[in-house]
Design a protein that fits this description.
There is one protein chain. The protein is mainly α. It has a domain of 44 residues. The protein contains two helices and no strands. Helix 1 runs antiparallel to helix 2. The chain is globular.
């Protein structure tokens, strides 16, 4: 299921996070961290960690631009 091997994140849908400010992204990351201990399934945890990584990468990118 590799679409483009030059990019590590292979997401099943396009996500445009450009409209979110850094505060919103930070809040989403904190919410994800708070929910991780509540997950029962390893698959759910892995998927949520993928989402967290996506937001962390967006946060790093947006901080570099400002």
């Amino acid at each position: 299921m590799s679409h483009d091997t030059s990019q590590e994140v292979s997401w099943p849908f396009d996500v445009d996070l450009s409209a979110l400010d850094t505060g919103s992204i930070t809040n989403i990351i904190l919410d994800i961290e708070n929910h991780l201990p509540l997950l029962k399934s390893e698959g759910d945890m892995k998927e949520l960690l993928r989402v967290k990584k996506l937001f962390e990468e967006e946060l790093m990118e947006s901080r570099r631009l400002h």
